[in-house]
Every structure is written in C-alpha cells, then in structure tokens.
Amino acid sequence: MSERASAASNLGRTDQPLHVVIVGGGFAGLAAARGLANRRVRVTLIDKHNFHTFLPLLYQVATAGLEPADVAYPIRTIFGHADNIRFRHGRIASVDFEHHVVILEDGSPIAYDHLVVATGATAAYFGVPGATRFALPLYTLADARHLRNRLLLALEDADVRAESGSVALTFVVVGAGPTGVETAGALSELISITIRRDGLRLDPASVRVILVDLGERVLGSFSPSASRYAARALNRLGVEIQFGRSVVEVEDGAIRFADGERLETATVVWAAGVTAGGTLADGLSTEPGPAGRAAVGADLRVVGRENVWSIGDAAAVPFGAGVYPQLAPVAIQSGRHCAKQILRVLDGQSTQPFKYHDKGIMATIGRRAAVAQLPRVGVIKGTLGWLAWLGLHLFYLVGFRNRLRVLINWTWRYFDWPSGPRLIVADVETVD
Predict the structure, then answer these.
(1) pTM score, whole prediction
(2) Domain that holds residue 23
(3) Mind listing the pLDDT tens digit for each residue in 390-402?
(4) Are residues 151 and 240 in the same domain?
(5) pLDDT by residue (tens digit) across 276-309?
C-alpha cells in the first residue's frame, strides 16, 4: 500500500478524533487553530516557517525601527498548552482532494478530514517588467531584512561617494496604501536620523523619498479627511507624493513611468498591492476567485469542496456584491469563524454565515503621527491616533516578551531617537 493510500485509510477511524489540517501560520491560521485548541479534534498546523510574523510591523523592521525577533514568535511556543495541536514545518506541494491528503514537498502525505487553507497572499506586480527582479516587496520577514540591508547599504555607499562631491540619492515607494505610506514615512525618518546621529556626510536635501501611486490620494480606503492629514504629515517628513503615476518598468537602479520619465533610484520599494495568485489558494475552488483568492461560500467553505475551507487573505469572502478586503482583522475573525463552523459540522449542526465586525482601520505616518478611522468614533489624528495605533498593535502582537520590547522601543522613540538596530546583516542564504 502506498504512503498516500495508507494516510487516506486512516480517515473515518473511530479510535481517534477527526483530523483538521491548517495550512498557514498567519493571522487567519493562528485564529483557526486557537479556536480548535483543546477541543475534540486533532489539528496539524503546517507552515514553511516555524514562526508567526506580525505583518503590520514589517515596515519597522525594514526601516531599522525594530529587530526581526520583535515581530516574530515560534508557533510551537504559541500552542505549547494545547495537547491536540501539532506543528509541522514544511511546504505543501499538492492536495489530493479525492483521497483527502495533502502532500508536502518532501513527499510526506498527511491525511485530513477537514482542510483549512490560510496561506495568505504575496506581492502583486501586475505584470510590470523588471518589478519581480529589481523592486523590493515587504510581505515576509526575509523581505524586511533584505530591504533594511539594501537601504542601509545605499546610505553607506552614498557616504563614500560624497567624499568626492555631492551625491543625489532617490528612494521610490510604489503604492500609497497603508504599507506604502508607513514605509515612506519611516524611511524618511531613518534617513534623517542616520545623517544626524551616525555622521553620514550627506546633504539631506539631496536625498529624496518619493511615494508614487496611480490614484488621486494616499490611503484610498480611508476617508478624504484622513487622506489629507496623512499627505500633510508625509510632506512634513519630506516625502514627495506623486499621483497619477503608472510604473511601466523597473530596472536595476532605475524606474520608468508611463509618461516616459526614467528616474534613477537607489531602491524601489513595491507596496502596490497583494495577490493570492501562485499560492495554494489559487485554483483551490471549482469557481475562480479574484486575484487568485479561493471562492468561498458565506460559511467560508470553498466552493465545490465539502470539507475544504479558506480564510484570511487567501479567501474571497463574499460581502454584498463584492468580497471583504484583505485586512488583518478580517483574517482573524474569519479564522475564528471557521473553527466554530468545523465544530458545528462535527456536531451535526448547520453552518452559519460569516459576519465581519468592523473595528476600524489605522495607519501611522512616522513618530507621533497616525490616523485611525474607527466606527462610531470617526477619524482620530496626530498623537492621539498614534497612541490608539500603538495600543491596538500591542494588543494583537503575540508574546509578552515581544510586547514589552516593542513598548519600550516605541516609548524611547517617542521622546528621543535611540541608535536603533541599524545593522547590515547579510545572510549567506536568503530564506523566503
């Protein structure tokens, strides 16, 4: 009997609980696993990393505000108290839906009674030539470390060249959503503090941070007043905002726009959006979902798959005539809902539709400046918005140690600029 057939033959055994396999240790996957912890099911959580990454703070790692360990936490440690949850480090190569088995890249088969796909999303390059090769995304911890190295190396190289004359340096951030706005603001602050505190021989006026977007305003998902505030805050930090710019090519050391301009760059940061295309969710459902996301029903079951579920950024969760946005709160709530529905199925009960409880959206624009758009409260700006942003992120950050370290770091940065982890640590081998 083959390994796959042997794994499939374990299904339906009465001497052990039903097996739920969760693929992905992000916000959605963790929420689903927590909802099933210490319940009457066996759970195997599979991820290509052995840690959970707090994605909203990756930009601070990339701009030397936080250390990588501050935003990551071991998955095994998170579920150390749950006897029914097992972690498996690996990547999924394929899914045998007929026999209810997932196959890892090393060939290992893992049988499931219910499969939960929470594989998240990746950077969307929209077919722009050269973007995948020369632009730097910001969606994994490896991305953040790579970008930090690139930014600091560019400043060090410019300092050397400044010995023989003035040096012009341009950083371009593509995409004016929350990630692009936060990265552009933090990058401008990094440049300022590095010149002032580390003694770089650069003229601040010769170093440009440009935020470009095809739209008409920053933070397009926020209210117009929040967008205007964010734009003013970025301008105060020295960030140049250029709207209506369509990128047609990214080169090694340059970027081209649809109007014909070619701009030499030190680094191009790609924050133009995400897609689930190319992930496990892509092609998971019998009906195609938008941007590679799995089409799911109101209860989060994948269309055409009775015992397969998809949650978080990997799922196109229906909402009115459209789908819910790819946001961390949606991922967390969908993960919790999925766990509840699986337990209802095991109890022989009908499933319930997912209902998202909007808790607002936030973005920070440098030190002491943020914008929070909250239901029944409205828009909170400035220091108060920054404190609200800080409190929410500390609440969702995994691990007491991480919360304490980040709180101390942010408190210190509020009153003064510490030296920070401005370290160029090049890995021999990059792990994505």
Answers:
(1) 0.90
(2) 3-48+90-121+276-346
(3) 888 888 888 777 7
(4) yes
(5) 999 999 989 888 889 999 999 999 999 999 999 9
CATH number for position 17 = 3.50.50.60
The CA distance from 296 to 286, in Å, is: 10
Torsion over CA of 234, 237, 242 and 248, rounded to 10 degrees?
A: -110
Residues 284, 289, 290, 291, Cα dihedral to 10°: 10
> In this predicted structure, which of 41-55, 60-74, 109-123 has the lowest mean pLDDT?
60-74
Query: What pLDDT was estimated at residue 1?
Result: 41
CATH code where residue 402 lies: 3.50.50.100
The 8 Å CB, 24+ separation contacts for 47-50 are 47/23, 47/75, 47/87, 47/89, 48/89, 48/90, 48/91, 49/25, 49/75, 49/89, 49/141, 50/74, 50/75, 50/76, 50/87, 50/89
Half-sphere exposure of residue 35: CA atoms within 13 angstroms, side-chain side: 22
Name the active-site residue from 98, 105, 163, 182: 182
Pairing of the two strands 274-275 and 122-123: antiparallel
Q: How many domains does one find in the chain?
A: 2
Tokens encoding 25: 């240790």
Q: Is 3 in the active site?
A: no
One domain, residues 262 and 300 = no
